[in-house]
Amino acid sequence: MKLLVTVLALVVQVFSLENGLMRTPPMGWLAWERYRCNIDCKEDPDNCISERLFMDVADRLAEDGWRDLGYNYINIDDCWMTPERDENGLLVADPERFPHGIKYLADYVHSRGLKLGIYGDMGNRTCMGYPGTTLDKVVLDAQTFASWDVDMLKLDSCYSNPEDRAQGYPSMSKALNATGRPIAYSCSWPAYDGGLPPEVNYTLLMDICNLWRNYDDIQDSWQSVLTIVDWFTKHQEVLQPVAGPGHWNDPDMLLIGNYGLSFEQAKSQMALWTIFAAPLFMSTDLRTISAQNADILQNKLMIEINQDPLGIQGRKILRTEDAIEVYVRPLSRKASAIVFFSRRTDMPYRYHTTLRSLNFTDSPLYEAQDVYTENVVSGLTVDTKFTVVINPSGVVMWYLYPISGLENPLASKKFLRL
Ligand code: GLA
């Protein structure tokens, strides 16, 4: 019997990811949104996809407080390879732009206390035309990445068909596990099959991937953020239950620090991604980011909420006729995150409500801390009428927690100080 159990356990290990990684949403930096496929290092040496860019970013992550807040992945995206595999069929980093190879970069990144992510494509070619990982190359590429000491793989899926994806994504999961190196696995599979059942099997994804891109690529605009938010909330009945420790929905990178978002919109993206229990991958120039944008990304209470150990994705719970939306995410210690989001384009809106109308009825007394201003609102009963002032395309975000009548409220505030 004991032997049978051991054998079964081994079988389960072989067929499911269970790599123990990403018990909370991953955090870090990913090159694509900001740096795309800029390979012109002559014209633009500071911003081309090269070893230098990744080493610069690694330095910033390590030295400017990012790593210590949890932003510990630094991830390469498309356009790192030579146009063809080498004579042994191996993927090779472009020798001009990555003169020391990926292993050297991984060693450097590790020496800075960070982890390195890399990009591949389950298909004939990557989206920008570099060599893809066809079915016959899955094991070889997994071994190559492991031999370079890579810590994460984003597996895209341009130039593929549904049948190859259905075979290739689980095979890569198995192949990564078989290397013996813990390599987190980000699957773009659902995004290529419409993001929804029955074409997408989220039960399977939860077993084989640590995170997955469900939907379209984010672009540097507020419109793009809204399209993504609306798709995720429209399908929240499907998407919300499949997220949890070790397996996350990925609405794509944070735009904060780039060109498309206003200050209010940047705060909104951060708050909504946190409600969604989303991975926090920045994609911006950390060498020149403004203090204002860095403050949004480095907000400690925000990060604590994003990284809540329960790992429950939040939901949109209502939209008023006045275009105010309310989102709630349950957190550990009976706390919750609430985002009041204005879809208005006129002026700051005074939204009046009560906790009861937002379905908070469990405790006689609550207290809330505003995540951005740090103001504390105390003495909230379920029927206390309160007002939040929400700027156009902005948010007010609360960390709400119950206070039992006998407790000193200050005691729970201590927990908020990280
Ligand atoms: C696809 C992905 C993007 C990025 C590009 C690279 O569009 O969805 O995130 O990786 O390919 O070419």
From TrEMBL:
Keywords: Disulfide bond, Glycoprotein, Glycosidase, Hydrolase, Lipid metabolism, Lysosome, Signal. It is found in: Lysosome. Its EC number is 3.2.1.-. The keyword Nuclease does not apply. Pfam families: Melibiase_2, Melibiase_2_C. Coiled coil: none annotated. GO terms for biological process: glycolipid catabolic process; glycoside catabolic process; oligosaccharide metabolic process. GO terms for molecular function: alpha-galactosidase activity; alpha-N-acetylgalactosaminidase activity. It catalyses: Cleavage of non-reducing alpha-(1->3)-N-acetylgalactosamine residues from human blood group A and AB mucin glycoproteins, Forssman hapten and blood group A lacto series glycolipids; a neolactoside IV(3)-alpha-GalNAc,IV(2)-alpha-Fuc-nLc4Cer(d18:1(4E)) + H2O = a neolactoside IV(2)-alpha-Fuc-nLc4Cer(d18:1(4E)) + N-acetyl-alpha-D-galactosamine; a neolactoside IV(3)-alpha-GalNAc,IV(2)-alpha-Fuc-nLc4Cer(d18:0) + H2O = a neolactoside IV(2)-alpha-Fuc-nLc4Cer(d18:0) + N-acetyl-alpha-D-galactosamine; a globoside IV3GalNAc-Gb4Cer + H2O = N-acetyl-alpha-D-galactosamine + a globoside Gb4Cer. It comes from the Eukaryota. Residues 311-394 form the Alpha galactosidase A C-terminal domain. Residues 1-16 form the signal peptide. GO terms for cellular component: lysosome; membrane. The keyword Glycoprotein applies. Belongs to the glycosyl hydrolase 27 family. PANTHER family: ALPHA-GALACTOSIDASE/ALPHA-N-ACETYLGALACTOSAMINIDASE, ALPHA-N-ACETYLGALACTOSAMINIDASE. Removes terminal alpha-N-acetylgalactosamine residues from glycolipids and glycopeptides. Required for the breakdown of glycolipids. Homodimer. This is Alpha-galactosidase. It comes from Phascolarctos cinereus.
